[in-house]
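Shipment paperwork, digital attachment
Item: protein structure file
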Amino acid sequence: MGWMALVFGGVTSQVNWGSGHVCWERLYPRSRSSIGGAPVTPGMWAIGDADGVVFLESSDLEAVSEQAERSLERESVLFDAMNEGEPLGDLLGIEAFFVAERGYAI
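Attachment content:
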């Protein structure tokens, strides 16, 4: 379990997340700010987990959410296949990549 605290011009947004969960919070800083060089403006969303945080404009939420769903579906298929004994390299086509890109097999 962890906590993420974001402070903007005296306004603190604190979000609690459980192990393995993603959290999100709409930010309302008083003015334009930046975190680690990333611009943060009023109304942006902070989406993060124990590995990091990204900041998104509200207008990007739907497209990012749809892409995340597709990624989760692909990962689920990969995990199922690996659990059935398929090597990850075969599932990802690593051998074909090296032949096509480098001209040799690994």
